[in-house]
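Form P-L/3: holo structure prediction, ligand cytidine-5'-monophosphate.
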Amino acid sequence: MSTLTRNDVTGRIMVALDYANAESAEGLLKQLEGIPCYVKVGMQLFYAAGPTFVASLKDRGYKVFLDVKMHDIPNTVKGGAESVTRLGVDVFNVHAAGGKYMMEAALEGVDKGLAVGAARPIVIGVTQLTSTSQQVLNDEIGVAGTTEQAVIRYARLAHAAGLNGVVASPLEVTAIKAACGDGFVTVTPGIRPAGADIGDQSRIMTPAEAFAQGTDYVVIGRPITGAADPRAAIEAIIDSIV
Ligand code: C5P
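OUTPUT (holo model):
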């Protein structure tokens, strides 16, 4: 039994709007109308619908995670962070693999872009993509050791740079909290309700299991967006947690 209320849980579900255009995303938003979940705008939708769409989400009161995974030279990331902070997003992310200096530059960009009185966005480091298997990590990317070791190394680096948290698999939440403290935010994709299609994800858990690990936010895409009835799908997910 969880001590989380239905509203707590709903506000900690980030629905991935992985769509090709604003019109398709709006279709899903209409189906989820009134459900106070977060929405996640990733590169597909952002490259197509851009800042205008994000600004319109903010105007309508949505909490927005802009998942554009910045990874570039520090000066460029600083500029990118400044721009997305001006847009008013609630959460955005940068790759921890860009290094400590790059992550610090992102925070400087936030300082520059933050309007007087505006809430500071939560800045999250991407550790190891949840689609990355052990074999891919070692043989293709060339990083030795276990996935968990790589994730914890990135989490410590993001923490040292002053970021608010990391994106990781729910399987790594306990170790991340142990290494960086309970207040270090975890955002966890790789969520699949029991019996759902795994797709290209590799390190997965059910929504209830992820919350039981102590994760702060779960990111859920296709199990909701690909469902015949997305509203029923998110309601069933919430029911499985509270
Ligand atoms: O459809 P699915 O639930 O697999 O969607 C997961 C979402 O989370 C996608 O938008 C993906 O880009 C994002 N994501 C991820 N792994 C990360 C960071 C983000 O799957 N490490």
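COMMENT: The pocket of cytidine-5'-monophosphate is lined by residues 16, 18, 42, 67, 126, 129-130, 167, 189, 199, 201, 219-222 (CB under 6 Å).
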